[in-house]
Amino acid sequence: MLWLLLLTLPCLGGSASGNPEPGAGREQVGIVGGCDVSARRYPWQVSLRFYSMKEGTWEHICGGSLIHPEWVLTAAHCLGPEELEACAFRVQVGQLRLYEDDQQTKVAEILRHPQYNESLSAPGGADIALLKLEAPVPLSELIHPVSLPPASLDVPSGKTCWVTGWGDIGHGEPLPWPLRLREAKVKVRSNVICNHIYCRRFPSNTTERSEQVIKGGMLCAGDGNHGPCPGDAGGPLVCRWNCTWVQVGVVSWGTSCGHGDFPGVYARVMSYMSWIRQHVPPFPRAAGGPRDGGDPASRVDTLRPSPVPA
Q1: Would you report the helix, strand and coil content of the chain in percent, each value rounded to 5?
Q2: Residue 154 is part of a domain; what is its CATH number?
C-alpha cells in the first residue's frame, strides 16, 4: 500500500501571456481553490507515476521537481514501502495538462533520506527522496531544473512563496479536466507558531512529545483555511531570491480538510542540502523561472495520509 500525504491550496493571483509573473493578471491556477498555470511556468514541475494494475495505466500519485537533468526531488513517503523498486515508478516532465502527450522517463534508482522512518511516515521527519532517472531529460523552455538553496539560507517568517500540483481541489473533489497544473501563494510561518498550532490539534500527555511535532527539518507555510486533497505531495515550494526561483520545501504533511489555521508542512530543503550534494552535482544553469510579482499575503491548505492501492 502506498501512503500519500496530500495538499490543496486557495486561489490567488493572475495569469498573463508569455512568461507571466505569479500574481499578475487573471489566473485560473490553484490547488484547492486555486487557478490554472499558463505555459512556460514552473518548468521544473514533475508528475510522479505509479502503475495501476486496476486501470492498466501509469497514474499520477505525487509531485516532484527536476533539480538536475538526471535527478528529481520528491517526498520519501510518496515512494511507499522500501521493497518497491525503481521500475515501479515513472516521471513525466514538461507537462502542463496531466496525461497530455505523455512521454514518461524511467526511474533508475531511488534514494530515500537515511533518517526517514517508514513506520512514522512524513510526520517523523526527513520526508525527502531523490530519483535518479534512466537518462537525462532534454532541456527546453518547458523543461528546466529549479535552483536549490544554500544550506545556510534562512527563509523568514512572512515570506511569500508558491506551491504547485495536480491534486484534488476539495475534499473528494478531483481536479477537473483538462487537469491543468495549479499553483497557490503561501506565506511562510515560523516553526514555533506552527508547532504551537499542531500541539493544540494533537495534545499529548508529555510535553517532550508535543514539542517535537514540527521538527527542525520541517518548514511551515499557509493558514490552512481549506482542506487537504490527494496528489500534491512531493511537489515543490519555491521562493524568489535575487531574480532566481529557489526550492525551499517539499510538500510533506498536515492535517485534514477544513481545520482552520493549520499550515501545510514541508520538508525543509536547506536541512538536507549536504545529503543532496552527496548524490546530485550542482547544475549551474538552473531555471530562473517566471518573474516575481511581489510577495502578497496568501493561504495554503493542509494535508493528510490517503491510501493508494499498489
Answers
A1: 10, 30, 55
A2: 2.40.10.10
Domain residues for 32? 2-308
**Amino acid identity for residue 32 in this structure:** V
Residue ranges of E strands in 6-76: 28-29, 35-36, 45-52, 57-68, 71-74
State residue 24 phi and psi, 5-degree precision. -100, 140
- The C-alpha atoms of residue 7 and residue 32 are separated, in whole angstroms, by 8
pLDDT tens for the chain, 310 residues: list them.
333 343 333 222 222 223 333 333 322 233 544 545 555 589 999 999 999 888 899 999 999 999 999 999 999 999 989 889 999 999 999 999 999 999 999 999 999 999 999 999 999 999 999 999 999 999 999 999 999 999 999 999 999 999 899 987 766 777 888 999 988 888 899 999 999 988 887 666 554 554 589 999 999 988 765 333 567 899 999 999 888 899 999 999 977 544 567 888 999 999 999 999 999 999 886 655 443 333 322 223 333 333 332 2
